[in-house]
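hey so i finally got around to running both of the ones u sent me last week. sorry it took forever, my laptop kept dying halfway thru and i had to restart like 3 times lol. anyway pasting them below in the order u listed, first the sequence line then the structure token line for each. didnt double check formatting much so if smth looks off just lmk and ill redo it

first one:
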Amino acid sequence: MKASDFPPVQKSLQRAEGIQSFLEWKSDTSLPPLHFAHANGFNGMTYRHLLAPLADRFHIRAWDARGHGATSLSADPATQTSWYRYADDLIVLLEQFAEEAGGPVLLAGHSMGGATSILAAAERPDLVRGIILLDPVMIRRHQGRMLRLMTKVGLRLGPQDLAAGAQKRRSVFPDRQTMVESYRGRGIFRTWPEAFLLDYVEGGTRSLPSGEVELACAPAWEAANFRGHNHDIFAGLAKLNVPLTLIYAGIGSTCRGNAPFLIGEQDKRATLLRIGTGTHFLPVEYPDIVRREIVALYDRILGLEEKVAA
């Protein structure tokens, strides 16, 4: 049987403050390592149907970031002012992954996961072979300060609307089926295929003693991530010296302004793909395109490495 025929296995890395959970697809560990980082409020399982067909080509891991999924690392919303903590967490995981794989890791990340991948790669370029950015959140530091000020005075705009909405999310449901039915075709899930929605609920909930289920990512933590932009994503981008691919949305993208241009300037041969009919949730809307570009970036990396070796 092929690796893609097997479901992912939940694994964990023990750390001093708890466990770092991740999914791993059964595969030949000699395959090139690929790590996937999810969006704020999501989890690794959400992207199962995106990643599973790639398991014959890559050794894949998809984490549950701090405060998400089955990861138990501390997640106090009062302390969440930036995404550097996520970058530090990712570096810990990549150190282990790269050691086991015998070399640096190809990174892919959606939204917050894309930004986190940039920050981690900027800090530890030795661990990273290339990055696929899927509508990454690219907000300048001064804009983050402005958004925090707007919150204090009661104004809402852009990410602050997202934060306010996240804060009000219902967190407890009678069961997972009720949760699925409440989400199906509504809000951010309007364009989601059923399989992705089911995986989101499976990977993003935990059972309570009462028999009910609750979101593993607390609404207050999700909101804190939307508000906590005291990190400099563009300074991180400027440090990168690895092949890049950007896929960004034509509708409601979080990769705005001159961010695509700057990504292209950082890697002159980067693929910059705008999906005009795609929303911020393009990995679940256009998984075939995302998979194609992941493979294309890896093939480009191989070509570059062969030229260097020659």
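and the second one:
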Amino acid sequence: MIPIKINLGAYKELLGIKKAQDSRIPETIKKLLNNPLLTEEKKEAILAKYRSTGDVFPFLRYFLNSFLLSASAATVSMLLAVFGAYSLSRLRFRGRVIIQRGVLFVYMVGGVLLMVPLYQMSVKVGLAKSVWGSLLSLLLIYIIQTLPVSLYMLGNYFRTIPYSFEEAAAMDGYSRIQAILVIIMPLSVPMLITVFVYCFIIAWNEYLFASVFLKQFHDFQTLPLALQSLFVSKNAIWDRIMSASMLTLIPVIVCFMFVMRNLTGGLSEGGVKE
């Protein structure tokens, strides 16, 4: 289980710190280079694929694609969930209970069943024709996937905040929106961090929808999709594959450590005497 020797060279190659060495070339390719029928130009072209790690697997590009898409989806989902959860936990209107319980019905239908209809809808409205339209479609799907549980988590947390805080804010002339921004959100920072990390991890690890919407746009693929492409490609080298997999885990590990450090409850307990 514990490796005897850690191959740091593969990590440096992926991060562009150093170029890949000829020793990384598989034995089958080395035998191919011994073919006398190959010209020097063709041999150099074959070697260039293994010396230039960025051409084989541009890890930093895929990392940035995944990070921007995941962070955008998590931010939008969290902001929408703040106002939606507040309305479900504080306001009284017709259909509130039905909406509150119905938002979780999204998880009753598997992603495989939704994949084809959602892609057909994207094609009909013209979003799937361009890379930015496909990214927008994927962003909306990630928001829809994470919003129900975000509403559920934040709604339960908002109910633990005494309503007396908002009454005091209303007496000071604060509107309801101002009370959310000034009172509710600062008191809910631990849960907001938790919701953001939850949404981020779901979008970061998502593969199914990304494989459909971004398959034809190689430069804009996310890390899970790019890792699968690297695994089945002819340029697949095990140390690069495992190094890329370990680097892909780092944001998830950091997010969990951040949540465990900041997830503390009861910030509002003892604020007022009910």
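quick thing i noticed on the 2nd:
The mean pLDDT is 79.
anyway thats it, ttyl
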